[in-house]
Design brief:
The complex is a heterodimer of chains A (292) and B (307). Helices cover 76% and strands 1% of the residues of chain A. Chain A has 292 residues and is an all-alpha fold. Chain A has 2 domains: 48 residues; 233 residues, MetI-like fold. Chain A has a two-stranded antiparallel sheet. In chain A, helix 3 packs across helix 9 and helix 9 packs antiparallel against helix 12. Chain A is globular, with a radius of gyration of 24 Å. Chain B is mainly α and 307 residues long. Helix content of chain B is 75%, strand content 1%. Chain B is built from 12 helices and 2 strands, in the order H-H-H-E-E-H-H-H-H-H-H-H-H-H. In chain B, helix 9 packs antiparallel against helix 11. The two termini of chain B are 15 Å apart. The chains are: A mainly alpha (292), B mainly alpha (307). Chains A and B meet through helix 1, helix 3, helix 4, helix 5 and helix 6 of A and helix 1, helix 2, helix 4, helix 5 and helix 6 of B.
Chain lengths: 292, 307
């Protein structure tokens, strides 16, 4: 009993320790989320009290140093670049997933997935640098400086493409094989199966993937900062320069102080809440197999 | 896949199929081509600028001259701190979350929602948070340590989820077998679970490394802009990605140097990723070779069952 008992109890102790440590570690992410919310709210609080939320909407312009705190132009720019990027990236992204699942030879499909997964890791400053050096001069031929809403939309669409392609691939993979077989048994061709069986069946998880991509696009900072031109006005055309909320934070945090700094934290809080809610919804809506 | 393909076939809508096939394959290939264009254009603009002095000397004239030696040091230090902070927590969290029997407890639900929200936070918000917590409240100032810890928070959810999937992919029978043999939780973890999952855990590490190296926005206001070689972890240090941004945007005539720095950044990502993945794959192969063979036999018999 003694020798045997000791071994057992040591093992029990070790097992308990690892259990405790791993539970604690699992809760760390949630703790960090609370910390982020707490610190950003604390820093944002002075601005929420003094100029107050109403001023962020009623002030028409953003000149924080002379007391103009309008966030609407930048909010508009964030929304426009995101919607534009997703509209551009969704059709080819979904088409690429269809190709991988139903047309490509298995070896090519494997290669394609790997290539997209690798290219998805390209740093955003590389996209920004490419947009600045290669794309902006091409856009400038149509007018303007080349650093514009349109340039930002195109660069952001490129960065969003891998996300949409990979998420759509997973969405198509999650539908029941029986449906596909049934479609084939009814004499549908590949396109018939893809358009009338697969796409409708995967609709909600495809939408969830697009929502995830949009959430990521709204938060993208560096590439947009480098190609959008950064003038905090409402854009009058596709070729006008814009400044997004994220770019504004990156540009002004370095020298902002007092209420100016506090307002940047307000926009950070706004961004975090605006992104986290759709993200949570989309992840819950996605099939269990690809986030588990 | 092969089975599914053979079910498509001689239908009267063959021509529609073929046209649709052309359209989707053009879409698929153009995605790779476009993204490839971005990388290749950067490589072509930058590779010519890179030589040994560029990699080893300090930058001069705001980066227009000299090299990027100190920035490589800063980048590796920030990366090391981020990985040291995030890896143990991510691994432990993954171990807990991969336990099938305890999915619905409130703790697991809270942990999972936390991971989802943390993964959603935009990197610039991590920058604000890191600045407020590490730089100001904890008094670290603009420093390598503050930048590394901020990145550690940022990559934690991605590493956790990938590691969890790696552990979950192991057959459930192993755990039951270990329990039947009276093997403790810790020895099972150390002798069987971790070695067998090592190659897949490597991809969690690689993901964390890739994200850390690529990140810029979270570092602008945490690790800062200083271009000297850092003498301690409390020094500010500029990473390669911040340097690319600064050269491209704020330094007239810095474009070619920005491309060259971007090339070094991409090269570093490929190099470190490759090393990590290869070495963990070797650990997996060396320490659990018999187990892996069993696993493949398992799979074979299951496929046999189905047919």
């Amino acid at each position: 009993m003694t020798w045997f008992g000791k071994r057992i109890s040591f093992r029990r102790l070790a097992d308990r320790a690892i259990e405790f440590a791993s539970t604690l570690a699992a809760l760390t992410a949630a703790a960090i989320v609370l910390l982020i919310l707490a610190f950003i709210t604390i820093e944002a609080w002075p601005a929420l009290r003094d100029p107050g939320p109403a001023r962020f909407v009623t002030d028409r312009t953003w000149f924080p140093l002379s007391g103009q705190f309008g966030l609407l132009p930048m909010l508009t720019a964030s929304v426009l670049t995101t919607i534009g990027a997703v509209l551009l990236a969704a059709p080819p992204g979904i088409a690429s997933a269809l190709w991988v699942r139903y047309w490509a030879p298995p070896s090519l499909a494997w290669f394609h997935r790997r290539a997209i997964a690798i290219l998805a890791g390209t740093p955003s400053v590389v996209f920004g640098q490419w947009g600045l050096v290669v794309l902006a001069p091409l856009i400038a031929a149509w007018g303007g400086s080349g650093q514009s809403l349109l340039t930002a939309v195109i660069v952001l669409a490129l960065m969003t493409l891998p996300t949409i392609a990979l998420a759509s691939d997973a969405a198509l993979g999650s539908i029941d094989d029986e449906l596909v077989r049934g479609g084939a048994a009814l004499g549908l061709g590949r396109w018939g199966i893809a358009s009338r069986v697969v796409l409708p069946a995967a609709r909600s998880s495809l939408l969830a993937g697009i929502l995830l991509a949009a959430a990521r696009a709204v938060g993208e900072t560096m590439a947009v900062l480098m190609v959008a031109g950064n003038v905090p006005n409402f854009p009058e055309s596709l070729l006008a320069p814009v400044r997004t909320l994220t770019a504004n934070m990156a540009l002004e945090m370095g020298y902002a102080s007092a209420s100016h700094r506090s307002i940047l934290f307000v926009s950070g809080l706004l961004l975090m809440v605006a992104v986290a809610i759709p993200y949570l919804l989309a992840t819950i809506a996605r099939p269990r197999s690809d986030h588990g | 896949m092969a089975e599914r393909r053979s079910n498509f076939g001689r239908s009267n809508s063959r021509r529609v199929d073929r046209v649709a096939g052309v359209i989707v394959s053009v879409a698929a290939l153009s995605i790779v081509a476009l993204l490839g264009w971005v990388v290749v254009a950067t490589l072509r603009a930058g590779l010519g600028e890179i030589d040994l002095p560029f990699l080893t000397t300090a930058p001069t004239r705001a980066g227009r001259g000299g090299g990027i030696g100190p920035l490589i040091v800063s980048t590796l230090l920030v990366l090391a701190i981020a990985m040291l902070a995030a890896t143990p927590i991510a691994l432990l969290a993954a171990i807990r979350l991969a336990e099938r029997s305890r999915q619905d407890r409130p703790g697991a639900v809270v942990a999972r929602s936390g991971l989802i929200v943390l993964a959603a936070v935009p990197s610039i918000v991590f920058g604000l948070f890191g600045n407020a917590l590490f730089c100001q409240a904890l008094g670290m100032g603009y420093s390598i340590l503050a930048g590394g810890l901020t990145l550690g928070c940022m990559i934690l959810p991605f590493m956790t989820v990938t590691a969890e999937r790696a552990l979950r992919d192991l057959p459930d029978d192993w755990r039951l077998g270990a329990a039947a043999l009276g093997i403790g939780r810790l020895s099972y973890l150390w002798r069987i679970e971790l070695p067998a999952a090592a190659p897949a855990l490597g991809s969690a590490l690689a993901l964390g490394i890739g994200r850390s190296l690529a990140e810029t926005a979270a570092l602008l206001f945490t690790s800062g802009y200083v271009m000297r070689v850092p003498t301690s972890l409390f020094d500010s240090g500029r990473t390669l990605s911040v340097h690319v941004y600064d050269l491209a945007m704020n330094v007239p005539g810095g474009a070619s140097r920005a491309s060259a720095t971007a090339c070094v950044l991409i090269g570093l990502m490929v190099l470190i990723d490759g090393t990590v993945v290869a070495s963990l794959a070797r650990i997996g192969a060396g320490r659990s070779a018999p187990i892996r063979r069993d696993a493949s036999r398992d799979r074979a018999s299951r496929i046999g069952d189905r047919s």
